[in-house]
Amino acid sequence: MPFKPLMRNAFAFAAIAGLACSAANAATLTHEYDLDGTYADTLGGPNLVANGGTLTATHYNFGANQGLSLSNGVTANDYSIELNFSFATTSGYRKIVDFKNLTSDNGVYNLNTDLNFYNSAFGPNGAIVANTPTDVIITRDGGTGLFVGYVNGVQQFSFTDSGLQGVFSSPASIAQFFIDDTVTGQGEASAGSVDYIRVFDGALTSGEALSLYQSGSPSAVPEPSQYAVLGFFILGVASLVLRKRRSIEA
Fold first, then answer.
1. Which of 177, 196, 179, 175 lies closest to 188, judged by CA?
2. CA–CA separation, 156 and 152 (whole Å)
3. Cα dist from 163 to 108, 156, 166, 167, 191, whole Å
4. Which residue, of 120, 126, 194, 225, has the greatest Cβ tally within 10 A?
5. Separation CA 152–CA 14 (nearest Å)
């Protein structure tokens, strides 16, 4: 058997193992809401609470200024949230995530089809299409304050959230989804439906956000323990290949 292919395979296995081990600190999925006939977290955490709307066997339908809230689900300033939803209306401001329990106009919006964090950053037009499933991921790095927004796996904006606008700072860390604040009274919300919501305990990378969107599953961001097992397995295979090469040479 040729030795060079064996060596190439061994080094390739080792390289993959290195990548796996280096990703051991990846953000972990902490809450998952499939909204398949229940508001429960599949991971056993707090339930979502509906403000009107209708839950079906496959998703949750909401009218303008109806939506969902989550208490004690995002308790740190380092997190990622994925929302897979569609809006009936994308003209003007339509709130997606409210961070201050409806007491601030700031938050994540659709603004005339772009993803917008009022009043800090916005992305290009055409990212959000009416009556079309859209995957929005927002991430916040607690160490740097970097806040990033993605639509369908593509980064739309980023800014340094030095003012803690993207921190869920109300009692019980209440997160409001698809409901506009009560401060301005402008009703900047849209009817629509949401398929699922997922929460992670850290800031996903751009590559992880893209993989998560492409897979439609949290399995795109494996648990750290999965990375470790994969790394040890691949290193073991590489070691066996090298030992086989030495025995052949001897």
1. 179
2. 10
3. 15, 20, 8, 9, 30
4. 194
5. 32
Query: What is the distance between the alpha carbons of residues 45 and 73, in angstroms, rounded to a whole number?
Result: 8
Residue 222's CB is within 10 A of a number of other CB atoms, namely 18
Q: Write down the pLDDT at residue 185.
A: 79
Q: Which residues pair with 121 in a beta bridge?
A: 117
Taking the C-alpha atoms of residue 54 and residue 69, their distance in angstroms, rounded to an integer, is: 14
Output the pLDDT for position 241.
41
Check: CATH 3.30.9.10 for 27-220?
Answer: no
CA–CA distances in Å: residue 57 to residues 34, 54, 91, 153, 170:
10, 10, 29, 26, 32
Q: Are 83 and 73 in contact (CB under 8 A)?
A: no
pTM: 0.80
Ranges of the chain whose pLDDT falls below 50: 1-24, 224-235, 237-249
Write the CA distances from 152 to 24, 110, 228, integer angstroms.
25, 14, 29
Task: Specify the pLDDT at position 26.
Answer: 77
Residues 118 and 180 sit within 8 Å (Cβ to Cβ): no
Residues 178, 188 contacting (CB under 8 angstroms): no
